[in-house]
Amino acid sequence: MSKRRKIQSMVLLLGLAISTITYAQNATRHEFTIQQAVEYAYKNNVQVKNALLNIQVQQQTNRDITSAALPSVTGTLSGNDYLQLPVSLLPGEFFGGAPGTFIPVRFGVKYNASATLQLQQLLFDGQVFIGLQARKTSIEFQTKNKEVTEEMIKTNIYKIYYQLVVSKTQIDLLDANISRLSKLEHDTKELYKNGFAEKLDLDKIAVQVANLQTEKLKALNSIDLGYMGLKTLLGMPVTDTLVLSDKLNEDQISNDFTLDTAYNYTDRKDYQYLSLGKKLNEFNIRRYQLSYLPTVSLSGSYTKNAQRNKFDFFGKGDWFTTSFVGLNISVPIFDDFGKDARIKKAQFELKQTENQIDNLKLNIDNEVAQSRVNFRTAIATMNFQKKNMQLAESVYNQTKKKYEVGTGSNTEITAAQTDLVTAQTNYISALYSAIIARVDYLKAIGKL
């Protein structure tokens, strides 16, 4: 190898080493229970972050509404330099002239300055009054929207988290099968060496071992993808390490099921959200209805005015004061039926929300009924498949003993192994289905 090639190789190895060190330094290890995973998502998931920002946006909107009811104070400074004084026409007869004639006269001084302080205070405005009343409900509405978003994220986290937890059982079963078949392969080799087995029997077992190893590789790849999906849902960098510390077994899944048919719509976050939306619609109608009432406001002004022939406002000279306090009443008389149109529009929107609430009740009833049936069926299927898997394992063990003593055939043990793998696959599938059914049921009754 040339010296140049050696240097290039060393640079490449050094770059790879630096990349590996940097990757390790940037990666963080997280060991989460299900609750810790949910709390992490509440802080880092983009949808939850935006829902929290919506609350802050509403808080600033409320501040804007509140400002309409607070006094407004404005200060104004102005100054004029009359390059030419304005002309006024006086009747000529004032100065001995003929009637109907006018004499142009310039009045005033070259420089004028004024300083004004104005006050505006709204005393009554029906729309502002309702806006102030609706502030709390508006915040509750956005807060409930955040909770609905969190529940959606939480539901998906529960499903993926526990599926990944249970996937360990799948890997354990595959490892047990591989170990079992590897032992059988070793025993068959010994029988083959002694002339008690055929080469075909040995090859069949080798094929089964290879198939199981392939299935394990597929399962591990699927689990890796599941972890990536969960990290994305949590808002966690893909480079971080995630360890799931919670366990879940059949008993825990079954314990969440109850035959109690009682449930409350108000336990559901989406129902609470729509109910607050209805309340805001009602505020909207009242807001437009009160717009028919007069608007009352108080105003005041305090002004200092000075006039000079020279620009010496900061020297000696008089500043003249003008001040007033006024009460303003604005009475709506006719607005081309605009208010009536807005009221009717708000009433239609309220009716739409009421229809959505009625439809949500029907959907909740349907979800609870379906999820209860699915959960009950999933638990029964899971228990059945577990017993079936245990029976298949027992059959395999007995068949293996018969094969080892020479009273069983390779065909029988191959069939028993195939049945065992099928039973294990069915059990894992039933376990996954039970997890999904459990989460859907708890969400349906508002207890997730």
Write up this protein.
The protein has helices spanning 3-26, 34-44, 46-67, 126-133, 135-193, 199-234, 250-255, 269-290, 338-404, 410-444, and strands at 29-32, 72-81, 87-91, 102-106, 111-124, 241-244, 295-308, 320-330. The protein is an alpha+beta fold. The protein folds into two domains: 27-68 and 125-293 and 336-444, Outer membrane efflux proteins (OEP); 73-123 and 295-331. Helix 4 runs antiparallel to helix 8 (269-290) and helix 8 (269-290) packs antiparallel against helix 9 (338-404). The model is unreliable at 20-24 (pLDDT under 50).
In short:
With 448 residues, the chain is an alpha+beta fold. It contains 10 helices and 8 strands. The strands form 3 sheets. The protein has a 4-stranded antiparallel β-sheet with strand order 2-5-7-8. Strands 1-6 form a two-stranded parallel ribbon. A two-stranded antiparallel ribbon has the order 3-4.
List keywords for this structure.
10 helices, 2 domains, 4-stranded antiparallel β-sheet, two-stranded parallel ribbon, Outer membrane efflux proteins (OEP), alpha+beta, 448 residues, 8 strands, single chain
Give the topology, please:
Elements: H1 3-26, E1 29-32, H2 34-44, H3 46-67, E2 72-81, E3 87-91, E4 102-106, E5 111-124, H4 126-133, H5 135-193, H6 199-234, E6 241-244, H7 250-255, H8 269-290, E7 295-308, E8 320-330, H9 338-404, H10 410-444
Parallel strand pairs: 1-6
Antiparallel strand pairs: 2-5, 3-4, 5-7, 7-8
Helix pairs in contact: 2-5, 3-5, 4-8, 5-6, 5-8, 5-10, 8-9, 9-10
